[in-house]
Amino acid sequence: MNKIKKPYILIGLFLLTAIILIRMFIFPTVEKIEKGSRRIIETQRESLRLVTQTMELTKFEESLDQYQPDLDRIDSLFIDSHSPLTFIQFLETTSLETNTELEISSIITPTTETNNWIPLTFNIILDGSFNDVMKFLEKVELSDYLVQSENLIMALDLDEEVIRMTLSLKLLTQ
């Protein structure tokens, strides 16, 4: 019986040694290969994404001349927060065209910047006939500026037959 158990013991030891060697050397090597393969695949995906972005950017740059007038028009919607003279000149010109008297009483700038577009508020007083004041408002609202009318107060002066309108115009700036 001892002769019969001896080959089984040797086979068992050989299998145990083989399992230990597989576990110690082959499995870590396979895991390293899998990790390396994953890294290569991720690198290839990132490379493909960058190539696609580069192609899209190149295509956009080629068609930039086509979009430039629209981009310039969008840029003109915003006024310069440090020098709002163009908008003030627009208000004065519109006031002359609509036969209204314009007084800009204050310009309010916010104390904190929350994003790239800073709202700038103009407090204005208009004097004129009802139709003229409404024409002024219509021209301002239909202008090329991003403007919002707020705090509109109208008062009628019966002696002079003039409407006095006080309002705030809120604009987005760059």
Describe this entry's structure for a reader.
The protein is α+β, with helices and mostly antiparallel strands and 174 residues long. The protein has helices spanning 2-62, 64-76, 85-97, 130-141; strands spanning 101-108, 118-128, 147-157, 162-173. It has a 4-stranded antiparallel sheet. The mean pLDDT is 81. A hairpin with a 4-residue loop joins strand 3 and strand 4 (162-173).
Question: Which keywords apply here?
Answer:
single chain; 174 residues; alpha+beta; 4 helices
Query: Which spans of ≥5 residues are poorly predicted at pLDDT below 50?
Result: none
Task: Give a quick account of the main beta sheet: strands, pairing sense, barrel closure.
Answer: 4 strands, antiparallel
* Count of helical stretches: 4
What share of the residues does DSSP label as strand, in percent?
15-25%
Distance between the termini: 97 Å
| Sequence of secondary-structure elements | HHHEEHEE
Number of strands: 4
Mean pLDDT across all amino acids: 81
Query: In order across it, which strands form the biggest sheet?
Result: 1-2-4-3
Helix content: 55-70%
Q: Given the C-alpha coordinates, what overall shape results?
A: rod-shaped
Rg over C-alpha atoms, rounded to the nearest angstrom: 38 Å
| Structure classification | alpha+beta
Q: What's the structural blueprint in terms of helices and strands?
A:
Layout lengths: L1 H61 L1 H13 L8 H13 L3 E8 L9 E11 L1 H12 L5 E11 L4 E12 L1
Antiparallel strand pairs: 1-2, 2-4, 3-4
